[in-house]
Amino acid sequence: MNIIITGASSGIGYELVKYFAQNNADNIIIISRNSDKLNTLKKECYLSCNTNIIPITANLNNEDSFNTIINALHINKIDSIDILINNAGTLEKAEFENTTLEQLKYIYSVNVFAPYILIQKLIPFLNNSKKAHVINIGSMGGFQGSVKFPGISAYSSSKAAIANITECLAEEYKNTRIHFNCLALGAVNTEMLQKAFPDYLAPINADEMARYIFKFALSGYELFNGKIIPISSSTP
């Protein structure tokens, strides 16, 4: 089994890599801008398993990074991808009237454009899998009807966009072996959340959420395709 996880250097992505490594995946391609943390994660995984970890240092805001990823797959003789988890994301808090065009472009570049283009580039690899599963990590902030945090209109709308893209791709590729789903996560106690909302304590930690996503990635495609699934312990 060949797996790609973006945003692997911290938080949910970091924990996800460890779960898949313990499950004896053949190859895990881990992507982040932070090469030091990727290498630390690779060493940590090697202490407990024999999974081949392939770190790729890439800034997904840079168009050249996508070619870097594809070239790395070819160099490592990987011609199929079974699971792609678009986990990389950014959260910036700014009141609507104070949100700059630069901030808006950056948030959409990371949360929407990057996963969109990465999926495009990887379609041939996903088509080579017997059962491919693409998981886009969304947010309850982008889930219709959910309670919204103030100050994150740019972030929440970007997550609504990736949710809609998921539905579109599931329809467009419904006659293939590729399934697409979006997990709309509730608040998770990560560095990114703490930076935006330092006084808020999320009820779920990164390891707990990673464990759920790990299980869903392996079997969720059996019953779900093109679904936006809210993952939150809040009520209603």
What does this structure look like?
- By secondary structure, the chain is α/β, with parallel strands linked by helices.
- 44% of the residues lie in helices and 19% in strands.
- The strands form two sheets. It has a seven-stranded parallel sheet with strand order 3-2-1-4-5-6-9, with helices on both faces. Strands 7-8 form a two-stranded parallel sheet.
- Helix 1 crosses helix 7 and helix 4 (101-127) packs parallel to helix 5.
- The protein is globular.
Coarse morphology: globular
What string, H for helix and E for strand, traces the elements in order?
EHEHEHEHEHEEHEHE
Structural class: alpha/beta
Q: Which stretches are poorly predicted, pLDDT < 50 over at least 5 residues? A: none
Largest sheet, in brief, is: 7 strands, parallel
- C-alpha termini separation: 37 Å
Q: Strand-residue fraction?
A: 15-25%
Could you write a compact summary of the structure shown?
The protein is α/β, with parallel strands linked by helices and 236 residues long. It contains 7 helices and 9 strands.
List its salient traits:
alpha/beta; 9 strands; 7 helices; 19% strand; 236 residues; 7-stranded parallel sheet; two-stranded parallel sheet
